[in-house]
Write a structure and sequence with these properties.
The chain contains three helices and four strands. Strands 2-3-1-4 form a four-stranded antiparallel beta sheet, covered by helices on one side.
Length: 87
């Protein structure tokens, strides 16, 4: 989930996101979004509840953009992808 914040609340949103059940990781970013939140839920109903109820209650979130993963790769594959071009 990509999260854009209101500037006045930027520093507080990350810790608030991390406290939400179903949010397993929160990363600060550079560029046009402020945080990436990794969400792991059991089904689409749980995702819907998280997005429309729990995230809406977090002060300082201006916009979210939710993406659903379709395929999972092993941890080794993911780590290797992030190492491309790194000395």
């Amino acid at each position: 989930m990509l999260v854009t914040c209101e500037r006045a609340e930027l520093a507080e949103v990350g810790p608030r996101l991390a406290e939400i059940d179903g949010v397993t990781e929160v990363y600060t970013t550079t560029g046009s979004i402020d945080y990436i939140a990794i969400v792991r839920v059991k089904d689409m109903e749980a995702l819907s509840s998280l997005v429309t109820e729990r995230l809406r209650a977090v002060p300082g979130i201006a916009h979210t953009d939710t993406h659903v993963a379709l395929r999972e790769y092993s941890k080794g594959d993911i780590e290797a992808a992030f190492q491309i071009g790194v000395d």
